[in-house]
Amino acid sequence: MIKEDTIIKLDDDKEYYVLDSIMNNNKNFIMIGEIDSVKDEITQNVKIMVYDSESNKVRKITDSSLLYELVTTFASRVMDKES
Amino acid sequence: MNSDAYLDLAKELYENNTWSKDVFSKRVRLYAKSMGVEDAVIEDFIERTTMPKEYSIEEKREILSAIKLDEEELKYGDVVNFIDDARVNKLFELEEKLLGKDKIYDYYKSAKKSILPNKENNNITSNTSIDMRKKDDNFLKQPEPLDLDSKKPFVVPPRPIVEPLDTYDINITTGKKEDVTGEKVPEFKAPERIEEDANEVTGALSDNEDVNEATSTLSDEQKKKLVVPPISFDDMPSTEEEYQKEAERITKEEKDSSVRIVNASPERIEKLKKGKRKIINFFIKTAIVIVAFNVLGTVGGIASVIGYLYFASDIKNGRFIPKNNFQRGIGKVVETIMNIGVSKEEDKEYEEKGRTR
Question: What number is the ipTM of this complex?
């Protein structure tokens, strides 16, 4: 599992900050934001991905239905943290 | 246009209480030609609407009726252009006495269609208001534009029917709703606090007097919940183009990628962490709108429960300040959604008191 507040590097040789990470049904879904290498800050290029620990690979979630479920789940977590 | 000749002709029509072919032809030729209608079109009209003998009023009515066109064929603008002339109104008054009110309007619609085959030939202009508009308000009336700035009390709309989300299997590899791999995508459930929050949340954008009246019977704690400060919308796209661009980025396919963990200093993590909340807020708010619309359509999408809750939370916490019509539109939809979960008794109370949200 990739933990929240971790920095990862993908094949595009860019660094990403793990904004949030959830486990569900043995799958690790992460919300990552690209890091601006010059300013060293998180950009608005945010993606939701699923991490496969066996292959150590991530796959971008683009299916609307699944994306919807994940976004709303992340949203509820944000609200829980803020409340 | 020679208005004297035209009005003299109309007067003659009225005073003689007759309508010979010659008079009719002269009148049409004068009137139509002055508007630039081609001679051939005028002659065709005269030929089709006259007979070689004098007609009684009833017979003329039959002729007019025979050439009457379907009302739907006539465009609103054509009618207005044709009758929007003070001189024509005088003629209307005269001809009403001759033909009767029930036929005169039909006649002008017919005449307009016949002698003015296209709009380019119609050169009539006038700033004078016209009586004919009063004769058929429904036909001439234009819908009023939406006033999103209106401070009128918010009327609780009918409760939208939101179908429960399907439970389905999604192959993560393909993204399709089919059980190819046998692996079921976990079912994410909406938090149970939705209805509870919906009951708590009330909207802003309201008239203080209405709120005071409506809240006079509530406890201090309840009143506190009803007071909604201005809301910020700064951390969201503000135009449809920006949403479109973001939608394309979010749904764009990408290749699988291997992952390498970067060893970062705690100081760097802390620095990045400071901007985390703003980025998450932007993404979630934007993505909720985009993916909800993609999945559930316009109404159902924005009505998605968590999406509603997230916006409602912002409204409740005073972070929602729409700056343009597009953002106000979203705000209105969210306000509508806020009614989901509100009890029927409260709905009645809102309607009876004209309470704003």
Answer: 0.92
